[in-house]
Amino acid sequence: MEESGQAESEQPLQTFNTHEVGLASIPRWLEVLLAKEFFNSCLVHEAEKKNEENTFCLDCCTGLCSHCLPPHRAHNLLQIRRYVYQDVLRLSDAYKLMDCSSVQSYKTNSTKVVFLNQRPMTRQFKGSGNSCIICYRNLQDPNLFCSISCKVHHMVNNIKSEYQSSLALPCAQMTPETVLKLPVAKKRRSIAPLPRIGCRAVCLQEAEITAAMNRRKGVPRRSPLY
């Protein structure tokens, strides 16, 4: 956030704690921030010079250009910077809002910055060194994420997988009663019945042969004498 002596907003800003993240714990400002495309021309001030949207209002969840700032002076503002044509935050600003540990930081103009989103890669990293556990970009030890979005994505996926696994019954807790409650009948219906036409024909042929072999000859009758 910009430290320019601005008055704080009336409502405290909800920070993002990755150690206490839940299914509904991601603040709305963070979702909008990661989805927003910055450094585009402001639609409200298209005719003005220097109308790039390089500031984000955390209270209003919107991008701002320099001409949009006056009504938001009392709000929590976050300055967006550019590094290798990508949106970055100053590490000191990002740490005020979220836990940036294990996120790779870079130094530009004697200032450490972190990427908001993962950068496009021309080829996938296949080396044996350290890499981002989400997009596999090459990283320096001991970092695990190349950007803030990768860390948020990883945390949310872990929470969802833990929540879904908690709905399933562990194998160690299975009893004969719980096994009987499984939808076995539905599985049996899906099994196609075995063809019996050929078997029936073979059985009939064998039965006819057996009956012919066991058939007794009738009493011989002589032809009448004339």
Automatic annotation (TrEMBL):
GO molecular function, one term: zinc ion binding
InterPro entries named among the record's database cross-references: PLATZ, Znf_B-box
Keywords per UniProt: Metal-binding, Zinc, Zinc-finger
Domain of life: Eukaryota
Keyword flag Amino-acid biosynthesis: no
Annotated ranges, domain B box-type: 42-80
Keyword Metal-binding annotated: yes
PANTHER family: B BOX-TYPE DOMAIN-CONTAINING PROTEIN, PLATZ TRANSCRIPTION FACTOR FAMILY PROTEIN
Protein name: B box-type domain-containing protein
Species in which this protein is naturally found: Escallonia herrerae
Origin organism lineage: Eukaryota, Viridiplantae, Streptophyta, Embryophyta, Tracheophyta
